[in-house]
Amino acid sequence: SKRFFFNLSVMGQGNQTVVKEFVLAGLSQTPVGQAALFVLFLSFYVLTWVGNALIMVTVASEARLHSSPMYFLLGNLSFLDLCYSSVTTPKLLVDFLAENKLISYGQCVVQLFFLHVIGAAEMFLLTVMAYDRYVAICRPLHYTTIMNRGICCVLVIASWMGGFVHSLVQTILTVRLPFCGPNQVDNFFCDVPPVIKLACTDTFVIELLMVSNSGLISTSCFVVLISSYAAILVKIRTKEGRSKALSTCGSHLMVVTLFFGPCIFIYARPFSTFSVDKLVSVSYNVITPMLNPLIYTLRNKEVKSAMRKVWTQY
């Protein structure tokens, strides 16, 4: 079993060995627990697809929403949520039914790369959405000029490009490390913190670089987001106006808290392991993409009305 567990392959330079595949720790080791979790997480994944796809279809079908910068960005957020959830959840579902939770080195690197591309792109997009709300509330007369369709498209593309550059740095730093065993990743997917712990070399400098990269992005975006909402509240003098602004931005604040809180906890600290890391990972990988559509639809009468209209048409 040890031979199977480590599954190391000799690569021809003395006694040096190189890991060809990793073993994922998963979320449960008992058959009953895995079966129950499979049903639960399959339900989460289906709800994620249904909710986010419904928002995308609604925004695309309803001209009034499609022409609005806020809902155009919301449709892109739903697309990112679908992509983000699909990076890890399908593999997790397969592993619930498998005796051995294996992932090849190449698949691990690909999963890590797309996780950070989409995750960072979503952070940047949420920041753009906060700026959109700031312009809408604080500069309403210039809103359509500042946040026109061309600018919105540029900001969405910039979010993706920022995510790509961030992830490229993370991935290059990871693949340059030597892995010669052990090969058990202490999570249900491949991410930078648990993977680089398996490197058979000193990773102190690499950890600092990666923390400064991921931690700086997540913390900086979060500070910008909070600052934009604080500026909105300062700008609006009346109690009624502040109440209306909070109602308008409330959904966005909930999404920001659910997404950035776990990300800052995982990435803005040295790569030490805590017992709650897996639960935190489940939160921003599985739960948040599922809750985002519910948060936006339950608190937004305009979206609910448009969804009912689309539903009756089909």
TrEMBL record:
Domain of life: Eukaryota
InterPro entries, per database record: GPCR_Rhodpsn, GPCR_Rhodpsn_7TM, Olfact_rcpt, Olfactory_Receptors
UniProt keyword Secreted, yes or no: no
GO cellular component term, pick one: plasma membrane
Mode of membrane association: Multi-pass membrane protein
Keyword Transmembrane found: yes
Keywords: Cell membrane, G-protein coupled receptor, Membrane, Olfaction, Receptor, Sensory transduction, Transducer, Transmembrane, Transmembrane helix
Domain G-protein coupled receptors family 1 profile, residue spans: 51-296
Molecular function GO labels: G protein-coupled receptor activity; olfactory receptor activity
Compartments, record wording: Cell membrane; Membrane
Pfam families: 7tm_4 (PF13853)
Transmembrane segments: 35-59, 71-89, 109-131, 151-169, 215-234, 246-267, 279-298
Family recorded in the similarity comment: Belongs to the G-protein coupled receptor 1 family.
Name of the featured protein: Olfactory receptor
Organism: Monodelphis domestica (Gray short-tailed opossum)
Lineage per the UniProt record: Eukaryota, Metazoa, Chordata, Craniata, Vertebrata
Gene coding for it: LOC100028941
